Amino acid sequence: MSQGHRIIGRIDTTSIADNALHNHVAAKTGQPLKPDGWTLTLVLHPWSEAKGEALGGRLLGEITCSDRQEGERLSSAFQPGSFISATAATAPAPDQQSQRIELTAIEGEADDPLLAAFAPDTPQTFTHTDLGTFRQDARLPDLFEGSATFAGRAIGLVLSNEVGSLDEAARHAAALMSKATLWDAEWRERIHQHYYQIWEESWRENEDALSKSDWMARLVLESLEVDADGQFVAWFADEDLFWGHSMEVTGSIDEGVKRVTMMG
User: Fold this and answer.
1) How far apart, in whole angstroms, are the C-alpha atoms of residue 225 and residue 140?
2) What is the Rg, in whole angstroms, of the alpha carbon atoms belonging to the chain?
3) According to DSSP H, which parts of the chain are helical?
4) Dihedral over Cα of 58, 63, 68, 72: its sign
5) Which of 35, 149, 223, 256 is buried most deeply by CB count within 10 Å?
6) Whole-angstrom Cα distance, residue 230 to residue 113?
7) Of the candidates 67, 74, 68, 140, the residue with the CA atom closest to the CA atom of residue 103
8) In b/e form, how buried is each residue of 103-126, taking b as 16+ CB within 10 angstroms?
């Protein structure tokens, strides 16, 4: 077995991203640079260290791949819903609701009855007077999925009770929706600030020049997740600006946008 801290978890989602794109932005913003290659990100939920207590927070495990093909091969080998064993360079903090760690190796599929029993057998529902009915995710029991109209577009709306109650999450979601046009404009503006120059230099190729408004209009808001302390994650499709990558905008109602990330 590889040296390091052994992690067992159930894969929620996987994504791959070109480290060169990250480093292009990081060099301008002062963020840490990543090594050459691609990064495969595995969102694990639930997870445990060395078959300990099942933990409900999300663990974003990142492993560096030599190229896109290696990242796609690993992503195909370990599908969402499966359990894996991996080693991490450092021990994750058990009391954090969401954190990123560096994975040094993925050892293979794992069998952990405690993790397998973490999610309830029968999904529950939550109904809000203004937002409608939400259904519990069978794989991620602290997420409740519904739908909404945001800035004139139908989107998926997800409430999380990971750090509080669904009523609190719904209250924050309603606050976002009451100013949907302003939030939508801010999210698009921040994506443009971070990634327009990258598109112009590396992804545009033979495509016609686009005005700022036309470029931002290509971004399509698909879903929004809101938790009980006002944190949000908005996902945008790129309408092939970046050949099928998506954009993740994270932040909070009180502090605004904190991070914009291109996802594989």
Assistant:
1) 13
2) 19
3) 19-29, 68-77, 113-116, 166-178, 180-198, 212-217
4) negative
5) 223
6) 33
7) 74
8) bbebeeebebeebeebbeeeeeeb
**Of residues 164, 160, 182, 162, the one with CA closest to residue 173:** 160
Prior bond of 46 cis (ω within 30°) = yes
Cβ neighbourhood burial of 44 (10 Å; 0-12, 13-18, 19+): buried
- Tally of CB atoms within 10 A around 102: 14
* Amino acid (one-letter) located at 187: W
CA–CA gap between residue 119 and residue 140 (Å, rounded): 7
Record the pTM: 0.60
pLDDT tens for 91-145 read 777 666 567 888 998 988 887 766 666 654 566 889 999 999 999 887 677 889 9
Residue with tokens 């691609």: 38
